[in-house]
Write a structure and sequence with these properties.
The chain folds into three domains: 108 residues; 65 residues, Roll (SH3 type barrels); 85 residues, Alpha-Beta Plaits (2-Layer Sandwich). Helices cover 58% and strands 17% of the residues. It is built from twelve helices and eight strands. A hairpin with a 3-residue loop joins β2 and β3.
Length: 336
């Protein structure tokens, strides 16, 4: 009995050493090739790799077989279950590491921000689908190791048609969201990092899964929306092609407002602020009412975050300029 226990201890030590050795090799490869992030990402596979090695040694090493009285022993079956589960875990980790490395490499060689967001969204959903498939196969393999499951296999196949119909009806909404998530990922409708307006609320797409989409609103609240919404209802995507857009401010002023002076002041303000991207800008009278005129200031910005900040700053600056230099331009109520 001492020899099998010594062999078990040796197997554990050998597994720990193998995991440490592989980690050291990956660490040196990552330091030697910093432009290849796959080596650093693969270091997260150390624990499942060690479990796979240990369980494989326990099942294949002749000295360690003495720990299992028979081929059908509960201990041997438990080790086999651990091996299958570890293989599934290792496959999921390797898949995630490879996809993360592919995206990191693509991000360094591509300057188009919209294409980077599209690829990140697609690879994220590919990872989730791939992980789900791996775990389904792993669970199926675990169940097949039980004799009872193999015995009832024929009856399960015979009733699969009826079960499939019932499950399809019950999971209609879930399947709809699943295929909607795939459609969003590969149709380039909305991507992670896009700024969208949904039912009057502006937010940034923070996460896309196979069933829901998370929007981060301006006050850091999270709006969780089923992905099927984005394939069945209209919404605004401000950054689908280009993250740059126009910021605009409307001011209701008196008819005696010196528009030319206000236009010149807007130009001076934009020149001195970093929020403006140096592109186009304009200030025009877009409408009139019996008591006021509507002045619209428009300017280009780099991204939606800068647009919100520039709108607030422009409105505050123009109103302060009119208050200090042209108070007669502010709207008033005439009683005579």
């Amino acid at each position: 009995m001492l020899w099998p226990l010594a062999s078990l201890l040796t197997a554990i030590l050998a597994t720990l050493f193998a995991g440490w050795l592989v980690d050291q090799i990956l660490q040196r490869l990552a330091a030697r090739h910093p432009d290849a992030p796959v080596w650093e990402a693969l270091r997260r596979c150390r624990i499942p790799l060690q479990l796979v090695l240990l369980t494989a040694i326990l099942l294949s090493s002749p000295p360690l077989r003495r720990l299992f009285p028979s081929e059908d022993s509960a201990a041997r079956h438990t080790v086999l279950l651990a091996l299958i589960a570890s293989l599934g875990w290792l496959t999921v980790r390797v898949l995630a590491a490879v996809l993360e490395a592919v995206f990191s490499r693509y991000e360094t060689i591509t300057e188009d921000a919209s294409r980077v967001r599209r690829v990140r969204t697609q690879l994220g959903l590919v990872r989730r689908v791939g992980s789900a498939v791996v775990w389904v196969v792993t669970v199926g393999a675990l169940l097949l190791t039980f004799d009872a499951m193999r015995t009832v296999g024929a009856s399960l196949l015979a009733s699969a048609g009826l079960i499939g119909i019932v499950a399809g009806i019950a999971a209609q909404s879930t399947l709809g969201n699943f295929f909607a998530g795939l459609q969003i990922a590969f149709s380039d409708t909305v991507r992670i990092g896009d700024t969208v307006v949904l039912e009057g609320q502006q937010g940034t797409v923070e996460e896309i899964t196979l069933s829901y989409l998370v929007l981060r609103l301006w006050d850091d609240r999270r709006l969780v929306v089923p992905v099927s919404y984005f394939v069945s209802k209209p919404f605004e995507n401000w950054t689908r092609r280009d993250p740059g857009l126009y910021a605009w401010v409307l001011l209701h002023l008196d008819h005696c407002t010196p528009v030319e002076d206000l236009r010149a002041e807007l130009g001076r303000f934009l020149t001195g602020t970093e929020l403006w991207d140096g592109g186009d800008w304009s200030l025009t009278v877009t409408d009139t009412t019996p008591s006021t005129i509507v002045v619209r200031a428009m300017m280009t910005v780099r991204d939606p975050d800068a647009a919100g900040a520039l709108k607030l700053a422009t409105r505050e600056h123009l109103l302060a300029h009119l208050r200090d230099h042209h108070p007669e331009a502010l709207p008033r109520v005439r009683t005579a």
